[in-house]
């Protein structure tokens, strides 16, 4: 009610200053008429020169440049963004491979303890067991998008080093390389 | 003894009551009309915010003078785009008027009077409907309807039936555009004052002096002085 009364009072003030408002409108109408004429001839001249009717202002050009640079930057960084929100992305799928076919039972415990070590969230295998050799250290399967330098913004790739594993996918594998 | 002896009979009291109610209604209507004008003006002014938004948010313009210059150019262009429609209508009506008048030879025809045949016409020139009250000429009753003056359709007035609506429409349209132009101009001035405003309200120099940093002694002294 108080707000309505305030608006009502301001409305009455508008009515009181209506003559001044109308005089302002009359002056603005004269100015606007001539401004429109000038703009019309100017736009027509530019149009027949094969240009845009209105020249793009320098400030608008700068805004467009900034917008395009931001858009390009966001498009480059876009693959990294869903990795945090989507739990089952390729960067945090943990592959558990069993390389022991014959003595599966005896090696089950070992397999669980050794091969279940997940791929780290940054896309690097950590202590992968190999057949008859030393485990390979830090074999790189880089699945994270690379960041390219940006013109305008200094966005940094979100850190994924401390991400906890969400689950494991058990893929049993025989010696011959065929899945059961 | 009263200075002025006013005696009112029952009829006068009723008349005063009616006058009072009419005055209150008139007052309320004026307030509502003012509210409407204010609301329309504020709605028109929002367009200037739209025009200025990007250059301010992306910090392309960094001072009020440049913002005012940019806003004026944008305001003129918006006015031009909005005024295209009324200008086209007015130009078409001008062409029609010239062609019609040159063909018929009636350059001084009263098109507004001819157009008024479409509406009810009242005899406003009747002197009996007016009264003189303390030097003011007031209307005492509604004038009589002139049945012979309309409403009716006269085929010979077809040009007036086209021209007058075109003139009225383009005139009102351009007036509304000008109202929007003025509203945007007012908003531009307001934004030029507020967007780059630096205020020191509630700021105290000594509140921001870091501990053991430069000015700490003065800070302590000022605090002690304030406590005293």
Q: DSSP strand (E) fraction of chain A?
A: 5-15%
Largest sheet of chain A: 2 strands, parallel
State the helicity of chain B in percent bands: 55-70%
Percent helix of chain A, as a range, is 40-55%
Unreliable spans of chain B: none
In short:
By secondary structure, chain A is mainly alpha-helical. Chain A has 5 helices and 2 strands, in the order ααααβαβ. In chain A, 45% of the residues lie in helices and 6% in strands.
How would you describe this protein?
The complex is a heterodimer of chains A (180) and B (228). Chain A is mainly alpha-helical. Chain A has helices at residues 2-16, 18-48, 58-77, 82-85, 104-114, and strands spanning 94-98, 168-172. Chain A is flat. Chain B has 228 residues and is mostly helical. Chain B has a domain at 46-196. Chain B has helices at 10-57, 64-104, 111-115, 158-194, 216-227; strands at residues 130-133, 136-139. Chain B has a two-stranded antiparallel sheet with strand order 1-2. The termini of chain B are far apart. The chains are: A mainly alpha (180), B mainly alpha (228). The interface between A and B is medium-sized, with 29 and 32 residues.
């Amino acid at each position: 009610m108080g707000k309505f009364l305030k608006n009502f009072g301001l409305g009455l003030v508008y009515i009181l200053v209506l003559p001044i408002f109308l005089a302002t409108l009359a002056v603005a109408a004269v100015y606007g008429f001539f401004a429109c004429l000038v703009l019309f001839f100017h736009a027509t001249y530019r149009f027949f020169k094969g240009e845009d009717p209105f020249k793009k202002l320098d400030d608008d050009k700068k805004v467009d440049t900034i917008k395009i640079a931001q858009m390009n930057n966001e498009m480059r960084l876009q693959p990294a963004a869903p990795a945090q929100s989507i739990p089952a992305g390729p960067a945090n799928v943990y592959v558990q491979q069993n390389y022991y076919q014959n003595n599966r039972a005896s090696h089950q415990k070992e397999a669980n303890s050794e091969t279940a070590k997940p791929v780290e969230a940054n896309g690097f295998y950590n202590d992968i067991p190999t057949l008859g050799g030393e485990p390979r250290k830090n074999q790189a399967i880089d699945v994270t998008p690379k960041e390219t330098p940006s013109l305008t913004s200094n966005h940094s790739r979100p850190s994924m080093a401390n991400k906890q594993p969400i689950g494991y996918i058990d893929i049993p594998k025989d010696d011959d390389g065929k899945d059961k | 003894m009263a200075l002025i002896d006013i005696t009112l009979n029952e009829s006068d009291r009723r008349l005063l009551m009616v006058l009072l109610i009419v005055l209150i209604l008139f007052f309320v209507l004026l307030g509502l009309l003012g509210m409407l004008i204010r609301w329309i003006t504020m709605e028109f002014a929002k367009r200037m915010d739209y025009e200025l938004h990007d250059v301010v948010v992306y910090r392309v313009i960094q001072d009020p003078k440049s913002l005012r210059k940019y806003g004026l150019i944008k305001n003129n262009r918006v006015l031009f785009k909005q005024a295209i429609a009324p200008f086209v209508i007015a130009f078409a009506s001008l062409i029609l008027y010239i062609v019609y008048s040159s063909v018929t030879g009636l350059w001084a025809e009263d098109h507004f009077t001819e157009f008024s045949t479409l509406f009810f016409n009242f005899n406003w020139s009747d002197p009996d409907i007016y009264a003189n009250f303390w030097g003011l000429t007031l209307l005492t009753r509604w004038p009589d309807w002139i049945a012979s003056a309309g409403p009716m359709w006269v085929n010979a007035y077809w040009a007036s039936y086209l021209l007058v609506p075109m003139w009225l429409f383009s005139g009102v349209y351009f007036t509304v555009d000008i109202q929007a132009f003025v509203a945007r101009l007012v908003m531009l001035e307001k934004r030029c004052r507020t967007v780059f405003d630096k205020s020191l309200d509630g700021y105290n120099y000594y509140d921001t002096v870091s501990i053991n940093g430069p000015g700490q002694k003065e800070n302590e002294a000022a605090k002690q002085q304030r406590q005293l």
